[in-house]
Amino acid sequence: xxxxxxxxxxxxxxxxxxxxxxxxxxxxxxxxxxxxxxxxxxxxxxxxxxxxxxxxxxxxxxxxxxxxxxxxxxxxxxxxxxxxxxxxxxxxxxxxxxxxxxxxxxxxxxxxxxxxxxxxxxxxxxxxxxxxxxxxxxxxxxxxxxxxxxxxxxxxxxxxxxxxxxxxxxxxxxxxxxxxxxxxxxxxxxxxxxxxxxxxxxxxxxxxxxxxxxxxxxxxxxxxxxxxxxxxxxxxxxxxxxxxxxxxxxxxxxxxxxxxxxxxxxxxxxxxxxxxxxxxxxxxxxxxxx
Length: 290
Known about the structure:
The protein has helices at 34-53, 72-91, 99-104, 106-123, 125-128, 152-161, 182-194, 205-213, 215-218, 244-253, 268-285, and strands at 17-22, 25-28. The protein is mainly alpha-helical. β1 (17-22) and β2 (25-28) form a beta hairpin.
C-alpha cells in the first residue's frame, strides 16, 4: 500500500481530492451535507428551547421545572384519577350484595370484564395461572369442580376471607394418616391413584380403607363436592398430583394449604367483580361437574 499527497480535481464530481491515493483509490474531499448541518442546528435550537420550557436539569434532590411547570408525576396521578373516576361509575354497582342481579346484567358485565381480567392477573394468576388452570398446590378454577362452591357469592366469601388465613377464613386441612401402617398407606395410595381412570376396584380392601377413612370428606367414590374444602379425587385437576407416590406423600404428611384473605387489599366491589370473573372461567372454559 502506498500513499501520495498530489491533489487534483475529480473529473466526475468536480470536487478536490484529499491527495490520498490508496492503491489507485482516490479519496474525495466532499463538503459536509448542508441538510445534516441544518438538522444539527435545529436539534441544538430545540434543546435550548426544551431546557427553558421543560423539566431538564437536576439540582440535587430536585430539578428545574421549566417555564411550563410540567411534572410527569402530577400528570400520571391526574390521568389515574380520571380513569378511576370513570371506572367508579360502574364499579360502585358491584358493591351491591345481589350478585345474581349483577351477573344477569349482560351490558354491565361486558363493560366490567376487562377490569376483572386485570384484577385476576394482578392478584390471582401468580398462583392459579393466567387462565385459571391451577398448579401444584393451587386449585384449578377453570373447571366445574369446586372445593366449596362455584356460586359467585361463595367464591366472593373465599376471596374475602381466604382459606386457613385467619379466624374468619374457611378452614380446610388434609390430616396426616401416618398412624396407618406403611402397607395400608401404600395400598390406599394405589387405590386413590386409579380413581381418575375410572377403573378402581370398589370391592378391594383398599376401597374399604377409603370408605372408612376418606369418604367422610371426599365423598363416596372420591367425587368430592361436599363443600368442606375436600377436592374431588376422580377428576384430573387434583391439587398436588394423583400418582401413587404423591398420594402416598399426602397420606403420610398431610396437606395444609393457605389462601390469603383479600379483604384488606381489594374493595368489596372488586371482590364481587373478581368472584363473577372466576365463576365465568368455569362456565366458559371448564368442565361441568357431574
